[in-house]
Amino acid sequence: MMKVEYQFDKMADRTIDHARKWDQKIIQSKYPGTPKDCIPMWIADMDFPAAPPINEAFMKIAQNGAYGYTYAYDEFYEAVINWHKRRHGNQVQKEWITLSYGTVSTIHYLYQAFCQTNEAVIMNTPVYDPFSYAAKHNGLQVIANTLKNVNGRYEIDYALLEEQLRTKRPRVFLFCSPHNPSGRVWHIEEIEQVAKLCQKYGTIFVSDEVHAEIILSGKFVSALQLPKEYHDNLIVLTSPNKGFNLGGLKTSYSIIPSEKLRQVFRHRLEMNSITSPNLFGVVGIITAYNQCEDWLDAMTDYIRENYHYTKEFIEQNLPNWELMEMTASYLPWIDISKTGKTALEIVEPLAKIGGVIIEPGTNYASDGENFVRLNIGTPKEVLVEALERIKIFMAQN
Ligand SMILES: Cc1ncc(COP(=O)(O)O)c(C=O)c1O
Q1: Secondary structure (3-state) at 363
Q2: Do 259 and 310 reside in the same domain of the chain?
Q3: Residues 160 and 79 in one domain
Q4: 75-86, pLDDT tens digit by residue?
Q5: Cα–Cα distance for residue pair 201/93, rounded to 1 Å
Q6: Aminotransferase class I/classII large domain location, by residue (predicted)?
Q7: Residue 238 C-beta-side C-alpha neighbours within 13 Å
Q8: pLDDT of residue 1
């Protein structure tokens, strides 16, 4: 079959989808006075148009004009099972899969299903903020298992983890695999070490794998690859939302091998009427998994180029910025402690004076005070302009 060429140099029009990332009302409310031509590198979605088969599938539905209630029909389960087998070598059974309305809301339901008020949950920090704010919204304690920065790469502190599991007895360990921020892909030995400790202390091991589809180097291994003995204590959360840029469809799913855990979890979903899914969300998952693998590979190649460009640019032009090793996703994580400034001291004036919006590390639960995060999921031309602006700003401030 002839290889299709995709145009990742082309921006989608982000006004039509009212993207929060680009929306002036949202930008001005957060950073008043930011120039209108600012470049947003904050919220984690990408600026490329989606894979053509996804757009065609949506147009077919729109041309037909029926938007009634739907359900998780067989093609959805088949697409998920086949994708996991083909792409990740995971053997997933149909009954393990439960559709839900986005991973963040699923985290809320999961905490509600398995934790009582004032109980604790544990996570490696810094981490994607909703892991901790979902806990706080539900009256739970957050235990931060601080990651160790070993030569620019995160490592898990197992001794500290064991101590925290033993003394605080958290109900849930919410693991981020690959990790956000930093894009660290965990090895199977590391995942097993965590799963083993969770099992020993009766903590449910939840692996959020939403960043697993964009792998820049090495190999992603899902927690579903763990030996069967860990399956009774395992919940995997995932979706094509990051890889195929479908976050606005608010559709995702969980994979829970244990019938016992599944029943508790599904009961909580039923209590909140998480039943009839979004029509486009289900079609998006099926089409992405069945027809868009070559688009994903081509897009990953493009991100890899952007990453190499960013890495070289930082090395040559931003001597006090230290990029952490990134092997997954499109969100470089940078240690700025050598600048002598905090993340907010850089991020706020960079928006208002420099015209580039990046994420301060303070947005990542804890332990991110000396970091900033970029979003390089954008055409190269936009990335180059943003980095040039950052260079000028850092030289003058
Ligand atoms: C680790 C992680 N989990 C979940 C999400 C969001 O998932 P969803 O849009 O399906 O709620 C993100 C978004 O960046 C993320 O980084």
Answers
A1: helix
A2: no
A3: yes
A4: 999 999 999 999
A5: 27
A6: 64-390
A7: 28
A8: 56
Joined tokens for residue 30: 């957060």
Q: How many domains does the chain have?
A: 2
6-21 in b/e form (b: 16+ CB < 10 A) is bebeeeeeeeeeebbb
Q: How many CB atoms lie within 10 A of CB 287?
A: 24
Domain's final residue, options 257, 291, 325? 291
H or E stretch covering 233: none
For ligand 1, pick from 46, 106, 124, 210 the residue to mutate: most ligand atoms within 8 Å of CB: 210
* Type and span of the H or E element at 288: helix 279-291
Burial of residue 39 (number of CB atoms within 10 Å: 0-12, 13-18, 19+): buried
pLDDT on residue 4: 75
**In whole angstroms, what is the distance from residue 266 CA to residue 30 CA?**
37
Could you tell me which residues are beta bridge partners of residue 328? 215
8 A C-beta contact, residue 244 and residue 54: yes
CA of 396 to the centre of ligand 1 (A): 35
pLDDT in tens, 86-138: 999 999 999 999 999 999 999 999 999 999 999 999 999 999 999 999 999 99
pLDDT tens string 236-287: 999 999 999 999 999 999 999 999 999 999 999 999 999 899 999 999 999 9
Peptide bond into 349 cis (omega under 30): no
- Residue 324 Cβ inside 6 Å of ligand 1? The answer reads no
Q: Is residue 13 part of a domain?
A: no
Assess whether the C-beta atom of 128 lies below 6 angstroms from ligand 1: yes
Q: Whose CA is nearest to atom 13 of ligand 1?
A: 44
Tell which atom from ligand 1 comes closest to the C-alpha of 127: 1
| Together in a domain, 120 and 199 | yes
Domain membership flag for residue 15: no
Q: 266 and 157, same structural domain?
A: yes
Range of the domain at 177: 58-291
User: Coil, helix or strand for 331?
Assistant: coil
State if residue 363 touches ligand 1 by the CB under 6 angstroms criterion: no
